[in-house]
Amino acid sequence: MNAATPPLVGILMGSDSDFDVMREAGRVLKAFDIAFEMLVTSAHRTPERTHQYAIRARERGLQVLIVGAGAAAHLAGVVAAVTPLPVIGVPLSATGLQGMDALLATVQMPGGIPVATMAIGKAGATNAALYAIRILALTRPDLADRLNAYHLDMARSVEKKNQLLQERLADL
Ligand code: RP5
Hints:
The chain is an alpha/beta fold. The protein has six helices and five strands, in the order E-H-E-H-E-H-E-H-E-H-H. It has helices spanning 19-31, 47-56, 75-80, 100-107, 122-137, 141-170, and strands spanning 9-13, 36-40, 64-70, 87-92, 116-117. It has a five-stranded parallel β-sheet with strand order 2-1-3-4-5. Helix 4 links the parallel strand 4 and strand 5 (116-117). Helix 5 (122-137) packs antiparallel against helix 6 (141-170). The longest helix has 30 residues, at 141-170. 5-O-phosphono-beta-D-ribofuranose is lined by residues 13-15, 17-18, 42, 69-71, 92, 94.
């Protein structure tokens, strides 16, 4: 993958204040060598720009959209309303409600316009990227193999943690 590789995944966020969480999605995609683009666009503050991006996303070659937003998080929904691409929503904590507002706004879509909603925050951003990779892996066996390797690594790291815990138990 290089800078000229056309992006397969678009990562959208409602504000630059979302970047610290949404970068986790970018990190996962980068680790799997999947070209992506990342941009700030808002459902409320830049509705026309958001609309135009979502309408053109498929013809530009994008295959999955990951959308993070906090507060009254309508971004994933308004994007999903105008594109046939799969949209994965990441609710973010941006107010005193700690992401519950964004979770409900993202997950409670009316019938007909699906948004695959992940967990609030960094786990959600990580899982959004992994979910996007699972979608891409339907037609890319190399990615399915890499996902299997990722799961094996994760299992090994849990076993290692258990081993270390057992050693600490011996010192109780
Ligand atoms: C949402 O409002 C953004 O996604 C962000 O999570 C939240 C707060 O935005 P800022 O006021 O920090 O720009 O639209």
